Amino acid sequence: MNEEDDADRPGDMLTEANQRKARGRLGRDVQSKIGQQLRAMYDNVVNEGVPDRFNDMLRRLDEQKNAEENSNSEKGTN
Amino acid sequence: MLDPTLRDQMLAAVPSLRAFAISLSGNVDRADDLVQETLLRAIANIESFQPGTNMSAWLFTILRNLFRSEYRKRRREVEDADGSYAESLKSQPEQSSRLEFNEFRAALAKLPQDQREALILVGASGFSYEEAARICECAVGTIKSRVNRARNRLADLLAIEGADDFGPDHATRAILAAGGGRG
Fold first, then answer.
1. Under CATH, which architecture does the B94-183 domain have?
2. Which of B64, B105, B140, B148 could bridge across to B133 with cysteines, CB 3.0–4.6 Å?
3. Predicted complex ipTM exceeds 0.85
4. Strand runs (DSSP E) across B28-117, as ranges?
5. B18 touches chain A (CB under 8 A)
6. Which residues of A touch B183 (CB under 8 A)?
7. For residue A46, what are the domain limits?
């Protein structure tokens, strides 16, 4: 499977292509090692779950909205 | 009032939003501020979210845009001050005793912004190339190219060898790679 690897940088295409040819594509083991480390770093944070501040923030927003809606409906009945 | 289903979807996305934000900014406090601002924006603009579409991708898009505008601003400010913002990102000393993990984070921080986010979205967040392209508002081919470059650059920075018996010498590796194809 050949992934696209067009060069973004103008004027760099020839040397990029030559370098890539010389270097070769990354082997599967290198790719998988990078992938593993990337996911390990990422999952480290994901596994912390949802910090309280976000739950609190959403709850406060809800309470605020509810209070506003209640005061609005009270006005409506008067 | 925010629909409880949407609220739950937002909260469910928070852990990966934080992971994305931390890998973008390299700073937990800034990342959490970024996530909080993302949620506030999302709630304020909730009518533009189409129920049934991917909430997580929508939030990632908002967070990315916030980060980029903040990043540009910050880079300008700091560059005006001492012109070395980029340096501060790669200030981790290279010590063989350092955990591989820290080395990896430092290497990731050296990648150009575009490449880093593409690699994270595809390689860690689990988005498809198509979803990542929508989040980054670019072509699918561009995402693929950025991910490729990011991997190549990381491999160089970390001097990860394709096989144990290859030395760290790039020229040697290049010759071997050119002769042997992949693997």
1. Orthogonal Bundle (1.10)
2. B140
3. no
4. none
5. yes
6. 27-28
7. 25-77
